[in-house]
Specification:
The complex is a heterodimer of chains A (334) and B (378).
Chain A (H helix, E strand, L loop, with lengths): L7 E3 H15 L3 E5 L15 H5 L4 E3 L4 H13 L3 E5 L10 H8 L2 H4 L9 E6 L14 H5 L5 E3 L4 H13 L4 E6 L6 E3 L15 E4 L4 E5 L4 H11 L6 E5 L2 E3 L3 H11 L2 E8 L4 H13 L8 E5 L10 H4 L3 H9 L8
Chain B lengths: L2 H4 L40 H26 L13 H9 L6 E3 L5 H6 L4 H4 L1 H4 L8 H4 L11 H15 L5 E6 L6 H13 L3 E7 L2 E2 L2 E2 L12 H5 L3 E5 L3 H16 L5 E6 L18 H8 L3 H11 L5 H22 L20 H19 L4
Parallel strand pairs in B: 1-2, 2-3, 3-7, 6-7
Antiparallel strand pairs in B: 4-5
Helix pairs in contact in B: 2-3, 2-13, 2-14, 3-11, 8-9
The chains are: A alpha/beta (334), B alpha/beta (378).
């Protein structure tokens, strides 16, 4: 029996591989965006694609996000499957009108005649020391727009599997890439890429019995670290990685919370009007009689994203998570 | 490294990359709008084309009147009229071939009808029983776009995709004078020029963006001049001269089809009616201005030419009017029937497959409808 030597790969490498495999498998897949061609993207996710597939398949566009997404709409209308890169979370805002007024609703307004299979890749979140406008958690805006899928990987394997699924989807997908995990490594064999994951299924990353941490994207490693640290406090925390914010996997999340009886939502996005409010409401509506405590949220503060030298105070960290776990009314059991 | 070493060599002129790369002169529009009718060139116009344009213009005027009447009767939620702009609407449709694409704004239902779309389908959005009443791919007419100028980058992307595939497809995108102030107008023209996409942009400058006149919209020499900044030709044409609009658009379409890239055409016309039935134009413009434009009517201009050249007689004029009446009667008959609505359609095409959340909401609506039918809803 031979063993395949698994080498560590980064999330960025897995994303590149997903794009390359999708472009190889389907000639209608076109990658477009700012600096994605010759340079290979500012995060190098599109590295080598222009060389391999030509500049018509991996295109450096003018610097105009509405134009990038707007022309992608036209390309999809003609039968192509564009994968658009928005260079940074906060640089995607000029494309909002195209996303909301056309991309998200074209299938609906044409009664299914003209779906738009567009994937919009958005590097998001903080923790990389970025200056102003480079670290936003913009997922709540996308979640609030019917017609979009909102997907975010937290592991190297998922980066591959979920991006392949997003590109294959006949619906538009906002694919949020956690910037600070681009260089995270995992053993992953590019010659046997991970399976294409279905969009819309959460996964339990760490089983536990005391409480459920519900999280996604950049906050997953933080939650796993917190769960390890919590063992010394006697808490055995379960960690659920949502992977998909739309559609939302009520089933997996609620099954976990019903088992543990306590839930905490963790994300970088601001708490007020953020994803955690919706998740807490959903869990409460469905699991009320199983809950030992109110569903709590650990989120970024409701402030404009801080300058890099202060961002560690803003981002949910292990201590803030453990503090919140401590507030899950453990004394009520006695 | 010393300070002197860091300093580069002395060079009074910038390197070549900073020099202008294109001579703008050939891109510039004419000083005055191009005209055919009422000029010597009119004698050269093809009689068949003149008759075809005339029939469509008369029909288009009747369509505008009928749609406006249907709005007053409550059969349409709203109607933005193109009365007075029929030459642009009709010419935009007639210059396209079967495989080409039209990208209309919300005001351009007449162009869609002139391209052959059933008026009932064209008016679905404005009746309000759905958003787009037709399959865009079947007719190669994009959905009527309400957010101004947002359809222009779509036209560019579609034309670009067709060109990459080696298909013979031109996209013609329509926008108004107000829409040229939008960012999407700028981005679409820029992308089109950079990609040399086979697109024709038709700006109908009808004088007003609801109430705001062009003087408050732009300080450009003309809207057609904007083309030069993107590196594409700009053409200025009398938008009420159907023959001139047809000629200029035909040339632009041919130019695009032959790989020459995009063109921006500004057609000077006038919105004879208010913005929509919900607008009161007397608040922002005088009757004398409207009357001056009524005297430069696209149908009268063409009818004069046809009559002068003996290409039409009273019977021919009557025949065009009768055909328009028949179209209007049929439209009326269809529109006076209540549309059949199924509220469950609301959930049908949000996603390829409804999400679990939408399935729950769909069930909720189904239960509400059942209760409503049984009269048990509390």
């Amino acid at each position: 029996m031979t063993t395949v030597a698994l080498k560590p790969a980064t999330m960025a490498q897995a994303l590149t591989r997903a794009l390359r495999d999708a472009m190889t498998a389907d000639p209608t897949v076109h990658v477009m965006g700012e600096d994605v061609g010759t340079l290979g993207g500012v995060f190098r996710v599109t590295d080598g694609l222009a060389k391999e597939f030509g500049e018509d398949r991996c295109t450096d566009t003018p610097l105009a996000e509405a134009g990038i997404l707007g022309t992608a709409v036209g390309m999809a209308m003609y039968g192509l499957r564009p994968v658009v890169e928005m260079q940074f979370d906060a640089f995607a805002y000029p494309a909002f009108e195209q996303l909301i007024s056309h991309v998200s609703r074209m299938r609906n307004r044409t009664r299914g005649a003209m779906p738009l299979p567009i994937t919009v890749r958005v590097p998001y979140g903080g923790g990389i020391g970025g200056v102003e406008h480079h670290s936003d958690s913009s997922e709540a805006y996308y979640m609030a727009t019917p017609g979009l899928h909102v997907v975010t990987p937290a592991t190297v394997a998922d980066a591959y599997g979920l991006l392949r699924a997003s590109i294959a989807s006949d619906d538009p997908v906002v694919f949020l890439e956690p910037k600070r995990l681009y260089w995270s490594k995992d053993t992953w064999n590019p010659d046997e890429p991970s399976p294409v994951e279905p969009i819309g299924r959460a996964v339990v990353r760490r089983p536990g019995s005391s409480a459920t941490l519900i999280t996604y994207g950049p906050s997953l490693p933080v939650c796993l670290e917190a769960a390890e640290a919590a063992r010394t406090e006697g808490w055995d925390l379960e960690v659920v990685d949502l992977r998909s914010l739309v559609p939302f996997d009520d089933e997996t999340v609620c099954a976990s919370v019903r088992r543990t009886g306590r839930a905490l939502v963790v994300h970088e996005s601001g708490g007020y009007g953020g994803p955690g409010g919706e998740i807490a409401a959903r869990v409460t509506e469905r699991c009320f009689h199983h809950l030992e405590a109110p569903v709590l949220r650990v989120a970024g503060f409701d402030i404009p994203y801080p300058p890099p030298m202060l961002e560690r105070h803003h981002l949910p960290g292990v201590d803030r998570i453990l503090d919140a776990v401590g507030r899950l009314q453990w004394e009520a059991e006695n | 490294m010393t300070v002197m070493e860091q300093r580069g060599a002395y060079r009074p002129t910038p390197p070549p990359a900073w020099q202008p790369r294109t001579d703008p002169a050939p891109l510039l529009p004419d000083a005055v709008p191009y005209r055919v009718l009422g000029t010597e060139a009119a004698a050269q116009a093809d009689p068949g084309l003149l008759r075809r344009l005339y029939a469509q213009l008369v029909s288009g005027r009747r369509y505008n009147a009928q749609a406006t009447a249907l709005t007053k009767q409550g059969r349409l939620a709203v109607y933005p009229s193109t009365t007075g702009q029929e030459a642009c609407e009709v010419a935009a449709a007639l210059v396209l071939q079967e495989q080409d694409w039209l990208f209309p704004s919300y005001r351009d239902t007449l162009a869609a009808v002139a391209r052959g779309l059933d008026p009932v389908q064209a008016l679905t959005l404005l009746r309000g029983d759905w958003h787009t009443g037709y399959d865009p791919r079947e007719h190669r007419i994009a959905p009527l776009s309400t957010p101004l100028a947002t359809q222009l980058p779509h036209a560019v992307g579609l034309a670009h995709a067709a060109r990459l595939k080696g298909d013979d497809v031109v996209a013609l995108a329509m926008v108004g004078d107000g829409g040229t102030s939008e960012g999407d107008f700028h981005e679409a023209l820029n992308f089109a020029a950079v990609w040399q996409a086979p697109v024709v942009f038709l700006v109908q400058n009808n004088g007003f963006a609801i109430s705001v006149p062009l003087a408050k919209q732009t300080a450009a020499p003309s809207l057609a001049h904007k083309a030069v900044g993107y590196g594409m030709p700009g053409r200025l044409v009398d938008g009420n001269d159907a023959v001139a609009v047809h000629e200029v658009l035909s040339e632009a379409v041919r130019h695009a089809r032959e790989g020459g890239g995009p063109t921006l055409v500004e057609a000077i016309t006038y919105r004879i009616e208010a913005h929509t039935n919900a607008d009161d134009a007397t608040r922002y413009r005088g009757d004398s201005e409207v009357e001056a434009w009524r005297a430069h009517d696209p149908i009268a201009l063409l009818e004069h030419e046809l009559t002068e050249r003996g290409l039409i007689d009273e019977a021919g004029i009557q025949a065009a009017r009768d055909a328009a009446e028949a179209m209007a009667a049929e439209l009326r008959a269809h529109m006076n029937q209540d549309p059949v609505l199924d509220p469950m359609d609301l959930f049908a095409d949000v996603y390829a497959e409804p999400t679990p959340q939408l399935r729950e909401q769909r069930d909720q609506l189904a239960a509400e409808l059942a209760a409503e039918r049984e009269g048990t809803h509390s």
